[in-house]
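QA checklist item 7 of 12: single-chain prediction sanity check.
[x] sequence parsed
[x] length recorded as 499
[x] structure emitted
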Amino acid sequence: MRYSSSRGQYPPVSAAEAIKMGLAPDGGLFVPDQIPVLSSADWELMTSQNYQERAGHILGLFLEEFTADEIRDCVEGAYNSTNFDDSRIAPTAELGRQVFVLELWHGPTCAFKDMALQLLPRLLVASARKTGEQSEIVILVATSGDTGKAALEGFKDVPGVKIIVFYPQDGVSEVQKRQMISQFGNNVYVAAVSGNFDDAQNGVKQIFSDRSFIDSLAQHGMKMSSANSINWGRLLPQIVYYLSAYADLVGAKRLIAGDKVNVVVPTGNFGNILAAFYAGQMGMPINRLIFASNANNVLTEFIRTGRYDRKRSFVKTISPSMDILISSNLERLLFELTGHDALKVRAWMEELRDSGCYQVDMETARKLDQYFWADFASDDETHMTIRKIWQEEGYLLDTHTAVGFDVYDKYVLATGDQTPTIIASTASPYKFGRSVAEAILPMELLEGQDEFSVLEVLAEFTNIPVPAAIKGLDQRPILHATVTSKEGMQATVAKFLEL
């Protein structure tokens, strides 16, 4: 299987090359030339397998030049009892009405990004070895909160790799921030950016496209790659958990094989719901992909109209990991929906760069409507949903998962569709403890409590313990205090690398 750039100006590469490079040199994203389809025998086998076995089987379909032993080593190194606090890795919880919550936050940083970023470092090291790479690999990451810590945790002390994470200075939760700035490891560096996530993401992309900087790195024996979901090695592991969830529900007789499901995904950068789209292309019987945005609802408008317009006010919300106006992975979806028409995709991306917006053609807009339904939730609606689900189900949602639940309720109200539904739960509620506590606790219990002491109050009130990865976080020493402008990001990278 070969991987082509979504912009069509770079020759196809192997899976190992795509993972090692992260981003294509023409600015495009690597996409597999074809999507493998699971047979009925595959599905029957998967219902009796554990998560690790399913992951190994699915990864093998995309990573043809990797041996079964290489894939098994990567999978078992990522998904184990040391890294995850639930042996099922990505369990589902049923909340009535055949609504199933896919819990993706049982990893070491309590967010869904662990599902990919515990695996990616192993895939990257294996890819570098397989391609004969001698250069030290420099991982550049822009994060809206969760990717940063998950990447740092996954790549810390990995030989032959350095990782640099940029986060928006005032655009993450206090828990997310402290997780990153207290990160240890002899190869890690973290810097805040004076701006929002899009500023950080654009800064990273500009560094990737600076030929003179790339040449300077090469002279020092270094080569850049990415741990963001622009890297196919980040996106591929996310496909696994949707397929695994369906196999779990069939195995538990909550679904009959072939039953259609809706999948609800709260997302800002489009990677998590794109993984669900690919799961559908592989044969998971998906009725509707339901896209959930917060007040930064550029993608909701796009799904509804086919017009992408980032020229709008950026809103800081209580679901900060979705505070994004430029969604990188949307480019992959457009490449798929246009039948791999790189010329058309490249033209749209150039329009976005030059004018801040683009309009897809009628056929692509029709396909968007065929696969997706979209809406968004305000902060008030998010709070109300957390309160409602806690009171009715005794289940505690984080702010992002609550956006998903709110939009799902709007979908059912608008369509009357009662198809069984999987809702992706993307983080532990304790990663956004203040906002969650404000939704369900009496205000007098919150008076005088800082961002960390409120976690203990929330735990006592709900009888749900604070995860070990978060407990005592405020007592850990601050190891990274750099703040940079978006214009100074490249100089920050050069300083860390001692160029």
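[x] summary fact logged: The chain has a mean pLDDT of 95.
[ ] second reviewer sign-off
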